[in-house]
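Journal club prep — side note

Before the paper discussion, L.F. wants everyone to see what a predicted structure for a comparable chain looks like in token form. Sequence:
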Amino acid sequence: MMRTVIISLTCVVMFVCAACSPEKTVPFQAYNSNEALPHPEINIVNLWATWCEPCRQEMPVLSDFHQTHPEIGVIGIALDPPENIEKFLQTTPIHYPIRYHSDDTESIMQRFGNATGGIPYTVIDAPKCGFRQPFFGVVSTEQLAQGIENAKKKCKNQ
């Protein structure tokens, strides 16, 4: 009886510790070019790479925005192989969904309106009303808030 209780408690502790582990913060998977964005109304899409220092600098801004604005979809699409992302996420807590697209980066850039191919690249996308506002370089909380406000105005008027 006592052995069963100890084994059960050990399993519970292991489960809780695994759930709290930083490397498990956000699961990631491949991004399909035809995949719908996380939110039907307004999304923030961030194209980035693990080797890109400015990309890493803006991640806390995106994480904070995601946590304080749950009504807005936030997704990061890494232009990296999955093994690089997995290693990166073990040391960097991210609180929004991460996908990867390492095969044809040009097509994913074009899908989100990035004709130059530079990163970091963030776009506010409101698919229902056709709104799209791009940001090249490190994005700020103020830029995201203004872009979301612009999207809401345009969508409200349609």
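L.F.'s comment for the group: The longest strand covers residues 43-48. Keep this in mind when we get to the figures.
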